[in-house]
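Any chance you could type out some protein's one-letter sequence along with its backbone structure tokens so I can compare the two?
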Amino acid sequence: MEILAASPLSNIIKPQIKTIVTYYHRLYQGGTENVMRALAGLWSEAGYRVVVVVDEGSFLDEALLPPAVAVRAIPVVPDNEPDRFPERINALTTILEEHEADALVYHAWNSGWLPWDMTASKKAGCPFVIACSSVFSLRAIEGDPYFSVQPTSFAAADGVACLSEADEAFWGSFNGNTHRVLNPVDPALYEAPASALDGHTLVWAGRFSSEKRPEDAISILAKVRERIPDARLTLLGTGESVEYDQRLQAMAEELGVGDAVDFCGFVDNVADYYRASDLALVTSEYEGFHLALFEMLAHGVPAITYDLPNLSWIQGTEGVTIVAQQAIDQAAETAVALFESRDGLKRAGDAARAHIRAFAAVDILAQWEQIFESLGHPKPEPATTPGQETMWKVLLSSYAHGIDGINERLWGKITSLWQQIDSERARANAELEQAQAQIAHLEEERDLLARSV
């Protein structure tokens, strides 16, 4: 990627964008899929030809797309079969060439396939724009060495679209054509009817996963009920495994709030649940945009969120109270204070609704057309000083070195444990064989004694 980033292919200039190809590995109901589908519809209505590309064999619901949007698929090649990588590159190149694509908007920003798919795009003479749907440090959070080389791939892209000031600052340090955008939302949200805020119902919405910590929402409810006995929690979402859901249900029972937690799963009529709620909880370790929070605030439901620095759009409103990560006691105290001050709760709800309505003035199509227009010009250099460039190189290489060292030490410990296990297994097998031999010998002596009697 460093060679590509330094070559003329890192900046493919297209003066006029008419056909947009956009990719994600699947198309169902996830957050990124919803964004890709909404953008595809927005671009199609604006007169662009749009082609959605997904992986072969992935979940694909074409009914979710506007009729004018074409759909194609590319093969998935196992990581351990690098000789087959050209199959995917050639398939994507063919799609781009057949549709005379002027831009490829790539939503799988965190995928290991990104460098290969960017190669295909460059091969077809098509500008490659990376659309980031989560926090730039996601790979670092996971302790993945890939984080140290991601900036090289982003530097080679023709443009980058991201969601927050922090993401814009980070990716902009490597790619001078980085833009901050707002995710498309249903315009009807800006006129959504407000919740009455006349009860004690907490609401949490999202996918059940370790980084979103739905467990914390249940713990918060348990503490709130110590002061507000009729408080309830509505959980909108489910996990990727039945075991996770069952674990949450068991936890609610153990904390004595099983009857006060409604496990609703994913629902189509989320607005009905928001209007019946009084206070939203966000307990995530990190978020990229959090559309569900946007929707809850639009319905005048104030929120208590863990500190999410990159979620810059929630800053500056009385409608959102921010507490420290995993500050369960503080979140519960804040919820109780709001429930005990109905005027304060309603004031926070009004502020939440007003905050969201301010986004109605954002022209999302214009934001993307600015990105498309930028593809017709030479890519600007990142606005970094030589010292800052060196700082990033040192930081990222140090990160990679540190992670590799940790992994090496962990693998060393794991290898040592396996060796101990193998040694113990061999010793146990030897003792078993010896015991079996002794048993066989005793049985022979028994038989000889029996015959001699």
